[in-house]
Amino acid sequence: MDLCHVPATREKGWYLALMAPNVKGPNYAWLDPSRLYCHPQGLQDCVADLLQPFQGDPIDMVAGIDAMGFILGAATATVLQKGFLAIRKAGHLCVQTVSQPYTDYSGREKVMEVRTDAISPGLRVLLVDQWVETGGTMRAAIQLVERLGGVVAGVAAICIEDSEGGRWIREHYKCAHCVPPRLQPRFNHHQ
């Protein structure tokens, strides 16, 4: 798809066609959304779709998850005119942090951390990531926010897969994603 082309009718998720399939093998994600971020209207519509369920909700800050969640999180924070907090993989922050171990979508054990001075008790945080596959990474981010006394105002991602972890997140938190219901089975099974 042409990176300048904008369809005459823009239904929710039209920009998903901008994503490119994996051509490098099993060590990479099955789909690459970074091309979507290069399309000005695609990125704007993606952020608008992510924010639609939260219209009128009190949100004090947006937090993006390392690393691709930084793109959507920063764009979302800008639209909301709120601050942006980076939730990082361990070892990247030179300030006081709190950390949380987790298992990522590939089954690898990792540690995530956040600065301790950014979240005060009662602060309402919208968590944003590029993709929620197994839910392990997002659950670790949720635990960090809540351990510091923050309130998870919601979870937003291009796709929240219908995995055990994805279902748990949808059952416990207000969520937004960009995949229309008719396409969700294809995204769950990586087609």
From TrEMBL:
Q: Please provide the record's keywords in A-Z order.
A: Cytoplasm, Glycosyltransferase, Purine salvage, Transferase
List the Gene Ontology MF annotations in alphabetical order: adenine phosphoribosyltransferase activity
A single Gene Ontology biological process assigned to it is:
purine ribonucleoside salvage
On whether Nucleus is a keyword of this UniProt record, the answer is: no
- Which protein family is it in? Belongs to the purine/pyrimidine phosphoribosyltransferase family.
Self-association state and partner proteins as the record states: Homodimer.
UniProt-recorded name of the protein: adenine phosphoribosyltransferase
Q: Which organism is it from?
A: Jacana jacana
